[in-house]
């Protein structure tokens, strides 16, 4: 997946917003909360997303995937795919969707209703 494909995928999710911040990173939010980031790692795209505690433990040991700089050091369960081909595009999309669902699930009922997000898959 490249940055353009990442942005198109994130934009296709319901009630998302996009900002460019943190050194030209594409930051995707739902309800004002971050669910995915595409920034740079050694001149290449790096994809960052929230994960479950189990996925954090399992995937964090895989080559080309690491606990997300800054976020994980603060106890948050976020991973970063920083090497090309460390994860298939399909798997990356699935993990981004899980991240989206995890963030939506943490929104208040009122926020979910205002955004038209009454149901999550988590």
Please describe what this structure looks like.
With 122 residues, this protein is an alpha+beta fold. The protein is built from four helices and six strands. It has helices at residues 3-11, 53-59, 89-106, 109-115; strands at residues 16-21, 25-30, 33-41, 44-50, 65-67, 78-81. Strands 1-2-3-4-6-5 form a six-stranded antiparallel β-sheet. It is globular.
Keywords:
single chain; 122 residues; alpha+beta; Aspartate Aminotransferase, domain 1; 4 helices; 6 strands; 34% helix; globular
Q: What share of the residues lie within helices?
A: 25-40%
The top level CATH class name: Alpha Beta
Give the N-to-C terminal Cα separation: 24 Å
Global shape: globular
The low-confidence parts are: none
The string of secondary-structure elements, in order, is HEEEEHEEHH
The strands making up the biggest β-sheet line up spatially as: 1-2-3-4-6-5
Instruction: Tell me which CATH architecture applies here.
Output: Alpha-Beta Complex
- Mean pLDDT, as a whole number? 91
Number of helices: 4
Secondary structure class reads alpha+beta
Q: What is the percentage of strand-forming residues?
A: 25-35%
* Alpha-carbon Rg, integer: 14 Å
State the gist of this model.
The protein has 122 residues and is α+β, with helices and mostly antiparallel strands. It has 4 helices and 6 strands. It has helices at residues 3-11, 53-59, 89-106, 109-115, and strands at residues 16-21, 25-30, 33-41, 44-50, 65-67, 78-81.
